[in-house]
Structures are given as C-alpha cells and as structure tokens.
Amino acid sequence: MECALKDDIEKIYAKLIALETEVINLRQGYVVVNKRYSEALGSLKHLTHTSLEAAKRAAVAAEKAAFAAKSCARAASAAADVVIIEAAEAAAEAAGMAAEAAIEAAAAASASASAAAAAVAHQAEESLLKASAEAAAATKRAAEAAAEAVRMSNLASESARIARQAQSKK
C-alpha cells in the first residue's frame, strides 16, 4: 500500500511539473504575443496620425485652390468689364485648374480619412477615434473648398464667355 501511495505521489508530482512547464510556456507565448500586439498598435497609431496630417494638409490645399479659383474668377470678371478677353479666358482656365487641384486635394483628404477609419475599425482606441473624426472633418472642409473652386471656375468661364460674345457683337 505504501508503494502504491508513493507511486501516486510521484504521478501527482509529474503532472504538477508538466502543468508548471505548460504555464511557463503559455506565459512566454503571451509575452511574445503582447509585444507584437503593442508594436502593431504603435504602428497603427502612427498610420492614423499620419493619415490625419495628410487629410488636414489636403484640406488646406483645397481651400487655397478654392481661394485661387475665386481670385481667377474676379480677374476674369474684371477683364471682361474692360474687354480684355484673352486675359479673362486665361483667368477662367486658371480657375478651372485651381478647381481641379481642389478636387484632387479633396480626394487625398478622403483617402486619408479612409485610412484613419480603417485603423479605427481594427483597433477602437479613443485617440484613434478622435484622429479619424478629425480626418473626416478635414475631408469635409476639402470637399466644400473643392465645390467652391468649381463654382468660381464656372463663374470665371461664364465671364469670359460673356466677354467673347460682347466682342463678337461689335
């Protein structure tokens, strides 16, 4: 009986050692996984903040392009008033290019906001959510600026067209 008890105790110790080894292996695996997760999260945060910066810069670019289109539209209108039609047409063309630049900037802002949103979808953290919201707001600004640039481009083109018609009637 004493021999059977001794065998049982040895089996229990062997199982304890096996469980202890398994726990050690699990801990080591957890450390590796946690380290990789932390690195991935850091990269994701960096990507999100970079995307936010790109969206903000694209919004500023779109706003500047809209301002340029507005200036070109004013120049086209002024040129039309004094019948300098070629200048009006050149200003209208410049307004069109500024509008295209604004549209491209809005598209870049949208792509950046999309990247930020994708990052949030993978890892919902407060800082990522905030960055994604800011990128979306920058995209909205860029889209509004692009729309304004297109309106100004159309106004410049209309001014040049009217000037050309007025000259041809003379």
Structural notes for this entry:
This protein has 170 residues and is mainly alpha-helical. It has one domain. Helix content is 95%, strand content 0%. It contains three helices and no strands. It has helices at 2-81, 85-122, 126-169.
Estimate percent helicity. over 70%
SSE series: HHH
Q: How many domain modules?
A: 1
Q: What structural class do you assign from the helix and strand content?
A: mainly alpha
What are the segments in which pLDDT stays under 50 over at least 5 consecutive residues?
none
How many whole angstroms does the radius of gyration measure?
Answer: 32 Å
Helical segment count: 3
Tell me what portion of residues adopts beta-strand conformation: under 5%
Coarse morphology: rod-shaped
Quick one: how many beta strands?
Answer: 0
Query: CA-to-CA gap between the ends?
Result: 127 Å
Question: Major beta sheet, specifics?
Answer: none
Please state the average pLDDT score: 78
